[in-house]
Each structure stands twice: as C-alpha cells, then as structure tokens.
C-alpha cells in the first residue's frame, strides 16, 4: 500500500520535529549553567515577558514526554533553573552586573573600538571565567572555615575530656573519703596501743632498776 503525499508530508514533519527537539536538547546541555541567558536563548536586555515566552516555547520543545532523547530531563531541568534565575530580579541584576564587569575588563584588554559579535562572545566567556573564579574562592573560604571549626571542635572535645577526667577523679576521691578516715582512725588506735604498752614496759624496767639499786 503506497502512502499518499499528505502522509509522507506528515511523516517528514514529525521527523523534522523530533530532530529539532533533539538538537534543542543538545544545545541547552552545551550551555554553561552560569549563563541562564544563553540557556534560554534570550538577550541580556530581555524583559520578564520575553523570559516567560522563551521558557514556554523551549520547554514544550524539549519536554521529556515529547522527545526520546536520553538527556531530555536534564535539559528540561536546566531550562527551568535558568527561567527561575532570570525571573528573580535580584539574581538577574547580579548576573548583569557581573556581565558588565566582564565587559569593562575585556574592553580594557582589547583596546580597540570595533566590537562586534566576537566581542560579545568573548564577554560571555570572560563572565564565566569571573564566576568560576568567584565560586572557587568561595569554596576555598568555606574549606578554611570548616577546617577552623573542626580544629575548634577538636580542641573543645579535648577540653571536655579533661573536665570529665577531673570530675571522675574528684568523685573517686570523695567516694573514698570515709574509707580513708576509717583507715586513719585504725592507724591512730594501733599507734596509741603500741605506745601505751611500750610506756608500761618502760615503767616496769625503771622500777626494777630502782629496786636493784637499793639493794
């Protein structure tokens, strides 16, 4: 059974649509997560309306239910994060501020007036480099803070261990107090008995010596 021209057109259209979906998934995944503008494919001058429209169109195109691409879900989630970031006024302003900083630094490096698409691409790359450096420094500070906290925690644990030892020693000393007192009393009683016996023997010896002298 031969297919009609309309069927062929429909099949070709479906294939073209699937190809477009897969290409868009690949495009989104190749964009840096540091640049939500590129992920959504919108200019830096975009409005919230532009952002919403771009997200709606692209999310329909790469939705995991609409394409068999193995990484469609990853691309869809990345697209959603980009939309969320750019719809946040503070976040968008922060990104644009860093973009402007990258533009100033790059303009000083290029030292020329002619700045076209090549310059704009270089600005984005410069922005990414700045953000990577900021993130690296942030992680280094965090590691240092965690190391300090770990050292302080270890020091506090050692101090707590010493306090526990002293407390246990004091308790053991207090618990043995009655035994020490009893032992001391026994010692004192024994010493008194020996002294009395010795004194009695000494008196007898003296009396015997005196009697012998009278004879």
Can you characterise this structure?
This is DnaJ domain-containing protein. Residues 146-180 have a biased composition (Basic and acidic residues). InterPro entries: DnaJ_domain (IPR001623), J_dom_sf (IPR036869). The protein is an all-alpha fold and 215 residues long. The protein has a domain at 12-87: Orthogonal Bundle (Helix Hairpins), CATH 1.10.287.110. 84% of the residues lie in helices and 0% in strands. It has helices at 5-30, 36-40, 48-62, 72-87, 89-110, 117-175, 177-214. Helix 3 (48-62) packs antiparallel against helix 4 and helix 5 packs across helix 6. The longest helix is centred in the C-terminal third of the chain and has 59 residues, at 117-175. The chain starts with a helix and ends with a helix.
Which structural category fits the helices and strands?
Answer: mainly alpha
**SSE topology string:** HHHHHHH
Mean pLDDT: 81
CATH topology call of the domain at 12-87: Helix Hairpins
**Based on CA inertia axes, which overall geometry fits?**
elongated
Low-confidence stretches are none
CATH superfamily name of the domain at 12-87? DnaJ domain
Give the helix level as a range of percent.
Answer: over 70%
Q: Supply Rg.
A: 45 Å
Largest sheet: none
The CATH top-level class label of the domain at 12-87: Mainly Alpha
**Proportion of β residues?**
under 5%
Number of E-state strands = 0
Architecture of the domain at 12-87, according to CATH?
Orthogonal Bundle
Region (Disordered): 146-215
Pfam families: DnaJ
Biased composition (Basic and acidic residues): 146-180
Protein name: DnaJ domain-containing protein
């Amino acid at each position: 059974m031969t297919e009609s021209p309309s069927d062929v057109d429909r099949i070709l259209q479906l294939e073209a649509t699937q190809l477009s979906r897969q290409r868009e998934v690949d495009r989104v995944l190749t964009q840096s997560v540091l640049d939500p503008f590129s992920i959504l494919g919108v200019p830096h001058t975009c409005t919230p309306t532009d952002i919403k429209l771009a997200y709606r169109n692209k999310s329909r195109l790469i939705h995991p239910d609409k394409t068999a691409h193995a990484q469609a879900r990853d691309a869809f989630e990345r697209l959603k994060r980009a939309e969320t970031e750019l719809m946040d006024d503070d976040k968008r302003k922060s990104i644009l501020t860093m973009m402007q900083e990258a533009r100033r630094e790059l303009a000083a490096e290029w030292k020329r007036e002619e700045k076209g698409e090549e310059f704009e691409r270089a600005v984005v790359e410069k922005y990414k480099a700045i953000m990577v450096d900021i993130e690296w420094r942030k992680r280094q500070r965090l590691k240092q803070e965690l190391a300090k906290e770990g050292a302080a925690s270890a020091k506090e644990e050692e101090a707590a261990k010493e306090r526990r030892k002293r407390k246990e020693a004091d308790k053991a000393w207090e618990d043995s107090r009655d035994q020490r007192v009893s032992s001391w009393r026994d010692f004192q009683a024994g010493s008194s008995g020996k002294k009395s016996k010795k004194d009695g023997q000494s008196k007898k010896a003296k009396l015997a010596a005196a009697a012998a002298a009278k004879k």
